[in-house]
Amino acid sequence: MGLDIYHAIPSIQTNETLEFFTLDEFAANPDFLKPYNHLLVEIDDFDFEVLIFPDQRTKDLVMQRTPGYTEKPVLVGKYENIAGPLLEIASRHGLQHKEPMVLKSIDNLLSQEIGREVYYHTAWYDTGAKKIKGLYWAEKGYQRKGMSPAFYQNFENCKLYFDKAAVIKASTYLQTRDATQMETLRAEFKTNFIDNFVEGESIFFASW
User: Fold this and answer.
1) In whole angstroms, how far apart are CA 200 and each of 9, 19, 162, 195?
2) Residue 47 near residue 127, CB atoms below 8 Å
3) Cβ distance 201 to 163 under 8 Å?
4) CA–CA separation, 144 vs 159, rounded Å?
5) pLDDT for 69-114, tens place per residue?
6) Nearest to 40 by CA among 51, 32, 48
């Protein structure tokens, strides 16, 4: 089981903000969207995506951080050298006559952690799906794992939380195997999720 915890804020679309929320995710708090109507955009709801990592190390780093990627087809190699294998994957899914939209994704947190740019490409295929309205988001805080089992019982997978009280509650479930790291974990969570949380702008959620 993987756990990723995010502090997100609404954003325009950039090369670094490829993730978005759909409108139905705000069903419990539609008023949150009112100040951000100008940021709502129509997004092509692509059904098929191939991940292209430049090397095995990058693949391992990103896949570990993003458990949902394990369900997607993956290629390893420079984008300019994988045309053949990419076409083979497309052909197996009846998409050999479709031109993919290729985007470069940069993982800023991983880049900071290891001291070099961590990037990969995604090849998106238009399968004729409809356009949907969405709100792109930028990352303001991130934590990988570090929660007790009770966290999974008291918070919902991928549910959006908009109040600071929920974030403070989440901090009570912080847990680490190494007791000497607990103070650091608490301090980092406070900095990345509590101190900079602005109600009406910030969104807290976790995925596993």
Assistant:
1) 9, 19, 7, 15
2) yes
3) no
4) 17
5) 777 899 999 888 899 999 999 998 888 998 998 988 888 777 877 8
6) 32
The neighbouring-strand residues paired with 7 are 141, 204
Output the six-digit token pair for 45.
Answer: 């709801």
Q: Torsion angle, CA of 70/76/82/88, rounded to 10 degrees?
A: -40
Q: Which residues pair with 203 in a beta bridge?
A: 8
In order, the DSSP letters of 17-85 are ---EEEGGGGTT-GGGGGGGGGG-EEEE---EEEEEESSHHHHHHHHHH-GGGGGS-EEES-GGG-HHH
pLDDT in tens, 158-169: 899 999 999 999
Helix (H, G, I), strand (E, B) or coil at 165: helix
